[in-house]
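Input record (one chain):
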Amino acid sequence: MGYRMMCSGDDLVNFLRAEPEKMLGAPHAVHMVALCTVVDEKALEWLLRYEMALDSLTGPIASFLIFYNEKHLRRGRTWYVDTAPPEPAARPYVAGASNSIVDLTQSMTYASDAVARKLGIIDRLPCIVIFDDPAGRECFVLPLDGDLDDTLDDLRTLLSLYYEGEKGTPYFTALLQWHASDQDLRKLKTSEERLKVENGRIGCLPRARARAQLERAKVELYAGRDRRFREYVNLVWPCNPPGVTWQEIREESNYIAKLRKLAKRLEHGRSQEVVDKASMLGVRCTGSKAADLNEAIEAAANNRTDQLLLKLGPQANSLELGRVELARAGLEALQASRLENLKSMSPPSIGQYIERITGKRKRHSVTRITRSGLNLAVQRGPSIMEAVSKGFDLFGKS
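The corresponding structure, as predicted from the sequence alone:
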């Protein structure tokens, strides 16, 4: 995974040697730190151009770190002031993030020199420093010079060899399990945040205002004024509320209004017409008095009113939020346990695979110099052995 670091070079090395997963927010088997300065123009442009490719290439296996502190730069000046936060911060690379060669150059220059001084490799810049055991003192250096397209191919080969050679180890298995459940945890947290926002509102209004509107609607419905009731509900739910449609709201409110109006007619005494209409509306009364029928009608109206108002509340979202919170807490506990398990294990060494890459680079360099010497020999006629000797003197017999 790619990270943009907002910290000084010294802080980065200290945190990598202490708790890298705390700073990065995720464990990795290998950490790669790109180091280059303002004089390494090609390397800086290469990092900015291929940042997305490097983020995708490293995946959960490795972290690829560059320094990019655009919020802490003095713009418009040729010098840099380190005003980084008290604790180092890392932001995972996001596709489409703002890119500025000026910001990158200033950030990388000061931090890269600081890291190189601390590790004693200032004469190896520009390069990629690779740690497979940050707590130890050993690190590997992959130069960022020559044909940088070859460097990207070398990183692909390196990570392919490393993964294929070590993927069956307990550490890799545990690491990939952690990252798989981390994706699930991120989805749960996204759902939780969405539900919290939704539960902070009812319909299209803030919770307090929506409750006030629903209380007014309730008063109107108890009074039998179904149209006024629907007007207040419409302010909260312009579209269908969860669990009920507007057609159901109209039918239910009309039915309740008819019951309320029927109850008012009983104020003038019981009549056969009222009894028949109550029966048509599904109200049954065993008593013979008007008060008995009125009580039955009021009970039916109140029951249907409560049921309708219940459907207009946020109970469904509240239950869903509780379920998501419970699942998130359980997964966080599992993640913490898996992280502790990873800390107790040693990641596989990448050293042998880096030696293969550097050896291949030396062989290619010797081949290029030899070919160059051969071409020169053809043109000028001196001994071919001069070119071969030059290659061996520079790079040894490997």
